[in-house]
Design goal:
The structure holds 2 protein chains of 2 kinds.
Chain A: H1 2-27, E1 41-44, H2 45-54, H3 56-63, E2 67-80, E3 83-90, E4 93-101, H4 106-110, E5 117-127, E6 131-138
Parallel strand pairs in A: 1-2, 4-6
Antiparallel strand pairs in A: 2-3, 2-5, 3-4, 5-6
Helix pairs in contact in A: 2-3
Chain B: H1 2-13, H2 16-46, E1 47-60, E2 65-78, E3 83-89, E4 94-95, H3 98-108, E5 116-123, H4 126-130, E6 136-145, E7 148-160, E8 165-174, E9 193-204
Antiparallel strand pairs in B: 1-2, 1-9, 2-3, 2-4, 3-5, 5-6, 6-7, 7-8, 8-9
Helix pairs in contact in B: 1-2
Classes of the chains: A alpha/beta, B alpha+beta.
Chain lengths: 140, 208
């Protein structure tokens, strides 16, 4: 009888530990690792702008929450509430791509100059006057 | 110029009624151009906007604090009429924890279905604000999140500098007003009232 209580006790203890372990693991699930993330789409500023202007809903379905690799020319570099923001443009399009950069990119951004060609990787969040990317990293 | 035109037109048609009509039309078009010209002028002076406005929200409970921020908000202010229009992409809110962001997007605001939140409002004390009195704008408007629209009254600090107009402040949003259902299991983790802060640095519309 005593032995049964022991076994039961250990079982419950292990169970509780396991549940809390899974819970903590889930609770602290990390954000997507942008450095190693494979881009689902490789596009230029103009291609993106055209698609969002032609049919925003369709473009939303295609691109939202996906990792995009975008190539363009640096139009502006700024900071907004402690985060670096990179604006990309391309000749022939008034719509730009606004990228909020990951904190890891703060050093790289200092080396960029306006007018330079750059490739970035970020998660698309939608379209207002411009196409928005978050958690963006600079590829080269 | 249009007298010559009309004369020519009248000679050709010998139709007085039609000439009258034509004359009216030219006058009307002239008026329209004038209006367009002046409204264009007014627009370039009085309309301000930002593509990178900042909005954050903060939920405080004894269990945990949740904060998310978004610096990709579009805001347009027309200082001649006092009207404000703001559009927020829900997916642009970033959280400290990936799980919170997932829950926010998938369960609470359903950002796939409702990707944008909107605010339209009017500055009710525009004249006082323009005269430089105390620098606080009273804004009343409608906030739309998901499929629910609710009236809100916001007090915002306004800083007018050389060519920028900054609006900053905070207000309270009641979660239940916007058809956001919080499951019982996390009810103690998420506040019923969330504090929304904003900071918009507007530039003149004709510039970038």
């Amino acid at each position: 009888m005593k032995r049964l209580t022991y076994i039961l006790g250990i079982c419950i203890l292990v169970g509780v530990l396991l549940v809390s372990f899974v819970f903590i693991k889930m609770y602290n699930k990390p954000h997507i690792d942008m450095v190693n993330a494979q881009p689902q789409f490789v596009v230029s500023v103009i291609e993106l702008a055209n698609e969002f202007q032609t049919d925003e809903n369709e473009a939303n379905q295609k691109y939202l929450d996906n990792v995009l690799q975008v190539k363009g020319e640096v139009a502006a570099i700024s900071t907004n509430n402690g985060k670096s923001v990179l604006t990309l443009r391309q000749e022939g399009s008034s719509t730009q791509v606004i990228c909020t950069l990951n904190a890891s990119e703060n050093k790289k951004v200092l080396q960029l100059k306006e007018g330079q060609q750059v490739t970035v990787k970020g998660i698309c969040t939608g379209f207002l006057l411009d196409i928005m990317l978050v958690r963006t990293i600079i590829v080269n | 110029m249009y007298r010559i035109l009309i004369g020519h037109y009248a000679r050709e048609n010998h139709n007085c009624k039609l000439t009258q009509h034509y004359k009216m039309r030219i006058k009307y078009i002239g008026c329209l151009f004038l209006m367009l010209y002046f409204s264009g002028l007014a627009q370039s002076q009085e309309q301000f906007f930002t593509r990178q406005g900042y909005v954050s929200f903060y939920s405080h409970t004894p269990v945990e604090d949740i904060k998310a921020d978004n610096n990709q908000v579009l805001s347009i202010v027309d200082f001649s009429t006092g009207q404000i229009a703001i559009t927020i992409l829900m997916k642009s809110f970033t959280f400290e924890k990936a799980l919170m962001q997932e829950h926010f997007n998938e369960n609470y605001v359903e950002s796939d279905k409702y990707p944008k939140a909107n605010f339209t409002g009017t500055i009710t004390n525009l004249e006082a604000l323009k005269n430089g009195e105390n620098g606080v704008a009273q804004i009343s408007g409608q906030l739309t999140i998901k499929d629910a629209t609710n009236p809100v009254i916001i007090e915002s600090k306004v800083i007018i500098e050389n060519d920028t107009i900054t609006f900053l402040g905070k207000f309270i949003v009641t979660v239940a007003d916007f058809n956001i259902k919080i499951p019982a299991i996390v009810r103690r983790n998420i506040a019923k009232e969330v504090e929304v802060s904003f900071n918009f640095v507007h530039h003149p519309y004709n510039q970038k």
